[in-house]
Amino acid sequence: MTYFKNVNDIQFEGLNSSNPLSFKIYNPEEKIGEKTMEEILRFGVAYWHTFTEDLSDPFGTGTAIRPWDKYQGMDLAKARVEAAFEFFEKLNVPYFCFHDVDIAPEGETLRESNANLDTIVALIKEYMKDSKTKLLWNTVNNFSHPRFVHGAGSSSSADVFAYAAAKVKKGLEIGKELGAENYVFWGGREGYETLLNTDMKLEMDNIGRLFHMANDYAKEIGFDAQFLIEPKPKEPTTHQYDFDVASGYAFLQHYGLEDIFKFNIEANHATLAGHTFEHELHYARIHNMLGSVDANQGHPLLGWDTDEFPTDLYTTVLAMYEILKNGGLGRGGLNFDAKVRRGSFAPEDLFHAHIAGMDSYAAGLKIAHRLIEDNVLENIIAERYQTYSEGVGKEIVEGNTDLHKLEAYALGLTKFNNHSGKLERIKATINQYILTTFSGQ
Questions:
Q1: pTM for the predicted model, two decimal places
Q2: What is the pLDDT of residue 187?
Q3: Can you give the pLDDT at residue 304?
Q4: Which residue in 99, 279, 282, 354 is the catalytic one?
């Protein structure tokens, strides 16, 4: 069955094309430096938002019109697989991602849920034989079901912890079966509402124990995927234990996991934590912890996770700047953890949204590459911190001084060598690069 009858294979047609079902900037074969756009960007489709999302919200039922929704149960799950691989092929996307409950319905018992997963995983594996699309990462949903009311790895119930751990075990087996390049731990309810009834140390210790168990089992079965944590600051709990990259990194260091995990950083989660997206990417990069990206954006006037498709070029430029400075994303990629707006309910809107996101990141890639090639930010930063390359500054950096020597030096100071931050000039220069990259100037 064909699910997207009105959509042909999406081709690159350039900025002058009037065809909405075409790429204007993203050309998978175009080389940026030594690699193609496809190799650098490593785009992925989020199975949940694309094939299971019904566009409901707290104030209304779903509006999505999806050709596969005429089915139910396992028939629906099988139809979604068929639709998904048609979508992947027409979009020519190299990767996809999923939670366990995205691909198969939960049963009355874990045994029944696992049997459903086995059926659908076998079907996905069969489709992957004839598809270029690979599994970027998989994970398990340990947050939606009422059993996870108090969390999963952080649950106050040992039975729930055991159930969550068993789901992770199955998720790791599925990842190995399908050749996942990464495995993500997303703690949707790993946090607390109030400290009045919470044993924080026990909860955090238990999450650390679960992560070590997962690593041990991955080694046991020969699953060599990169493990990733996806920070989220709030929503639904008051405070998540993986609030942002900094707190997540401290957690990993405390439990001896920093050499096992990296971060899957979501743009909308960064802004909910009070950071810019580029801040989270940068913090992860300078600590060698940048693993993968959930590419979306939030609404600046709303205080929750709106998961919009990324179209802000300024943000994609700064994001790709960090990714390129990182040497790319390694085994990670740019997964569109994003959903169409509630009013964009037609099947074709799924293509329009992904095209917009892919073109936006392709533009960000081209602009960021030019900025780096011209050493625009590097030159300004080097000039600003130039005093640390000589004299007392060099001694500070190299650890060849102490408070006695610094005091002796400071007592004689009458003038201070500060350089302008040149922020306005920098922003104007970035605007110039954005405007001229595609103008032929």
A1: 0.96
A2: 84
A3: 86
A4: 99
